[in-house]
Design goal:
There is one protein chain. The protein is mostly helical and 291 residues long. The protein has one domain: Orthogonal Bundle (MetI-like fold). The chain contains 13 helices and no strands. α3 crosses α5 and α5 runs parallel beside α8.
């Protein structure tokens, strides 16, 4: 049995170029892509476009409203809200991105190993995953902070470990179904190595579902890390972070200047919703392409 390989030029003609794909997006997806691009661009360019230093406040301008050189006002420490939103995007987005990358890569490898090898390997790893399922991600992150100190590194590693079983369990179930299909048997008959079949042929087939799970994990990780920073256990001042901004702006809300608290909370919600919508859209596109 021979299996046809589509050249890259033919794949481009068949599936379209990136401009064509973007042109085919629905308007809600386009809006979400634009919002994510704007937030990411602001976070990347923050050091060059910040009107003020986000880590130093002006005590003579505390709780100032919009205007007077501060577009979005200031918080109780005199920090410029707009500058903190830009700088806070770096830590607020990099943390969840690290969680998703680590948990997805580890979960895919563990799930493939369980389903592909089976037997005692599947049973042993399955018991370990069951134990990890018993620990909520936020509780595991708080435990990591208690052991290794406050900051971003320990919670990111802890949450990645907590989210990994979800991806591993999903990949295990998908792989168990996919490896019984005829094309897998055809590759085995041709003498391809198991690693090649699993990583180069089977994994692309289950990638759309894994992508959808990763977008969900990103949203949960962003919310969990923001909650940790709000509790004072995550990113520490003076490093800007959206969750820490909400915590530090409680006094501003009571004084009638809620922008420094409302805007970072709104950004968290917008990013979570936008990532979920875009991830599900491209997962559906990949599923239809593979069908």
């Amino acid at each position: 049995m021979s299996i046809a390989v589509i050249p890259s030029s033919q794949r481009r003609r068949r599936f379209g170029s990136w401009p064509a794909r973007l042109a085919g997006l629905t308007w809600p997806t386009r809006l979400c892509v634009a919002l994510l691009a704007l937030v990411a661009l602001g976070a990347v360019l923050a050091p060059w476009i910040e009107p003020y230093d986000p880590t130093s406040g002006d005590l003579s301008s505390t709780l100032a409203g919009p205007g007077g050189g501060h577009w979005l006002g200031t918080d109780g420490g005199g920090h410029d809200t707009f500058s903190q939103l830009l700088a806070g995007g770096r830590t607020s987005l990099l943390g969840p991105l690290g969680v998703v990358l680590f948990s997805t890569v580890a979960g895919v490898l563990v799930g493939l190993a369980c389903a592909w090898r089976g037997g005692w390997v599947d049973a042993l790893i399955g018991r370990v995953l069951d134990v990890l399922f018993a620990f909520p991600s936020l509780l595991l992150a708080i435990l990591a902070v208690a052991l290794f100190g406050k900051g971003l590194g320990a919670p990111v590693v802890a949450m990645a470990i907590a989210y990994m079983p979800y991806t591993a369990r999903l990949v295990r179930g998908l792989t168990a179904q996919e490896k019984t299909r005829p094309y897998i048997a055809a590759y085995r008959v041709q003498g391809h190595a198991a690693t090649f079949i699993a990583l180069r042929r089977l994994l692309p087939a289950i990638a759309p579902t894994v992508l959808a799970q990763s977008t969900v994990n990103f949203g949960y990780a962003l919310l969990d890390l923001a909650a940790l920073s709000f509790l004072g256990l995550g990113v520490q001042p003076p490093t800007p972070d959206w969750g820490a901004m909400i915590n530090q702006s409680q006094a501003a809300v009571l004084e009638g200047q809620p922008l420094s608290a409302v805007l970072p909370a709104l950004l968290v919600v917008i990013v979570v919703v936008a990532v979920t919508v875009v991830g599900e859209h491209f997962a559906d596109r990949l599923t239809k392409r593979e069908a």
